[in-house]
């Protein structure tokens, strides 16, 4: 199990600011693509899910639930 390098807590989860920025960018791209360009909504959703999975694999950022520390790994 992964422990926090800052406080030693084992209550950690994937996420962090980098992942949130990826989510926001994806949403900001998907909404106008669907509404303005009439892009297929189901296809846009599938692409977003794939991009989120890839982002988690690439970024590997973790957050400590107890102290809020964020680190790579
Ligand atoms: Zn911690």
| Fraction of residues in H or I helices | 40-55%
Main sheet, how many strands, which sense, barrel? 3 strands, antiparallel
Helix and strand composition category: alpha+beta
Compute the number of strand runs: 3
Shape type: elongated
Q: How do the SSEs run, as a string of H and E?
A: EHHEE
* Parts with pLDDT < 50 across at least 5 consecutive residues: none
In this entry the ligands are:
zinc ion
On the 0 to 100 scale, the average pLDDT is: 92
**Strand coverage percent:** 5-15%
Which strand order spans the largest sheet, edge to edge or round the barrel? 1-2-3
The rounded Rg comes to 16 Å
First CA to last CA: what distance? 12 Å
- Number of helical segments with 4 or more residues: 2
Task: Give the helices and strands, then pairings.
Blueprint: E1 12-14, H1 17-35, H2 41-59, E2 61-64, E3 70-72
Antiparallel strand pairs: 1-2, 2-3
Helix pairs in contact: 1-2
The chain binds zinc ion (ZN).
